[in-house]
Amino acid sequence: MIVLTTPRLLIRDHLPGDLPYHHELMSSDSGMRYLPELKTHTLTQTRENLAEAIRQQGLADRRCYFFWIESRETGSHIGEIGYTVTKKTPLGALADVGYFIRESCWGHGYTSEALRKVLRFAFEENGVYRISCGCLKENAASRRVMEKCGLLPEGELKEYQWHEGALKDRLVFRLLRREWQRLQGQAQTFTE
After folding, report:
1. Are 52 and 38 in contact (CB under 8 A)?
2. Helices 140-148, 110-124: crossing angle, 10 deg rounding
3. At what angle do helices 43-57 and 19-26 cross, to 10 degrees?
4. CA–CA distance from 12 to each of 117, 168, 181 (Å)?
5. Number of domains in the chain
6. What is the pLDDT tens value at each position of the chain, 192 positions in all?
7. Pairing relationship of beta strands 92-101 and 128-136 according to DSSP bridges
């Protein structure tokens, strides 16, 4: 079981007992507004989603790293974060990262804190070479999270994604392992 900690957060692999909280978030209109393709509409759908996350933990060739985020102080569920390995190369894995947080937890820096920790795990412990991420252009909060964590803009896909009755622009970001290492070196310099 993967367990990552930050000063405020516990980020871990899922457990079967997560189901009620997982369903509350996965079926939430506000929490899943920008991820309608992942939103669940029934407890059965959420149970299947959680079962797949748990099944992935036991695979020798695990490709999905989906994590539960909770407050270390209160033990309350904050949200979900994770990445999917899309391809393996001689330099390391290519992966897509994503996150969704309970509306009551927006604006507290939890997502950036969790993403930094997951990036560190991916690059330093799990052989990932490249992380990709994206959001609709209108989703300023998600864009800020990516920028705060050092992800770099790669492009803008015009009228690319159907969302809420319209084709909308999508922003694409990336971070390479060497760019992550450079960021860590810069952070170390600032703290000395």
Report:
1. no
2. 50
3. 120
4. 11, 33, 24
5. 1
6. 999 999 999 999 999 999 999 999 999 998 899 999 899 999 999 999 999 999 999 999 999 999 999 999 999 999 999 999 999 999 999 999 999 999 999 999 999 999 999 999 999 999 999 999 999 999 999 999 999 999 999 999 999 999 999 999 999 999 999 999 998 887 655 454
7. parallel
E-assigned strand segments in 36-127 = 64-71, 77-89, 92-101
User: Hey, what amino acid is at 137?
Assistant: K
Residue numbers of the domain that contains 176? 3-191
Model-level pTM greater than 0.90? Answer: yes
113, two tokens: 């804190």
Separation CA 40–CA 80 (nearest Å): 14
Q: Which residues of 7-41 are buried (b: 16+ CB within 10 A; e: fewer)?
A: ebbbbbbbeeebbebbbebbbeeebbebeeeebbe
CATH no. for residue 118?
3.40.630.30
Q: At 183, is the secondary structure helix, strand, or coil? A: helix
